[in-house]
Amino acid sequence: MLQQTQVDTVIPYYQRFLVRFPSVNALAEARAEEVLKLWENLGYYSRARHLHAAAKEIVARCGGRLPQDRKELLGLPGIGEYTAAAILSMAFGLPVAAIDGNVSRVISRLYALRKPLGSPESRRPIRDLADQLLSQRHPGPFNQAMMDLGATVCTPRTPSCPSCPLRGLCMAERKGLQGKVPVPGKRPVPCHKPMTAAIIADRKKRVLVVRRPASGLLGGLWKFPGGERGATEAVKEALVRTVREELGVSIRVGEEVAWVKHAYTHFRVTFHVHRCAIERGQPESHEGREWKWVPAARLRRLALSKAERKILDALHS
Fold first, then answer.
1. For 300, which DSSP code?
2. Pairing status of strand 291-295 against strand 191-200
3. Are strands 267-280 and 191-200 parallel, antiparallel or unpaired?
4. Minimal CA–CA distance to 64: which of 72, 54, 77, 74?
5. C-beta separation of 88 from 156 below 8 A
6. Which of 8, 88, 272, 292 is the most exposed place for a label (fewest CB within 10 A)?
7. What pLDDT, on a 0 to 100 scale, did the predictor assign at position 289?
8. Does one domain contain both 134 and 197?
9. What CATH number corresponds to the domain at position 249?
10. Residue 291 near residue 259, CB atoms below 8 Å
11. Which residues constitute the domain of residue 31?
């Protein structure tokens, strides 16, 4: 949960997660939708899917116990070098340096490294220095201390150098470079995607929703029918096309009822939301996508993305 999410945000999610899933067996036996619902609003939903899949493998292949071998850990869904190192050092006390963004920043300032974080030129030096600094007797607490130092003191902007326990050792602070190190990398300009969403209700006032494919962005979450609008398409044309592609039905597009903006890490979206009605056909599962009619009052019980919840808020405002 802490990958790409701040501690204060994670704590209530972590506590609720442990109450519902107190063991790896409990998590392995859960439905994917329930896991996603408890994860709702944390973002990066592939983390939840990988965690669920890893729990299943740990129960099936490892007798319900997390392996202590690096290669075995790396073979589990969602576990990369950083997570494996954190588990080995913190859970099992093995001398492995765990390097996240906070640790990389601390080391960059300690040694006044002038290469952008994440670049090929910086990865190897930071890895070598982290290995040299690592406490062999207490690797877990050392790794956690380095992460906490980066998160609370050696922050990306305006680091608290006067209160830093490593101030006397920091080459960047000595040279007055703490505001320039690490060297920022070039950030791509986020693109914009015009989106459409159809609110289709039946006579029982149930709303039609579609489940996203299990893999990919927001995989496994429910959404309103619709999709990305082409560069030369009108909104109504895009709605007719995307709903037909998803569900195999022809729709009549009615009034626009909401206009919703949302930003993801690397791109922004704007949803044009219209009330629509099915003119021909019955919904079908295309490309394995599940669909169902849901009473309007129960829509929020589904695992939805933040953009979908914004649409719901707009409809009820």
1. G
2. unpaired
3. parallel
4. 54
5. no
6. 8
7. 83
8. no
9. 3.90.79.10
10. no
11. 1-79
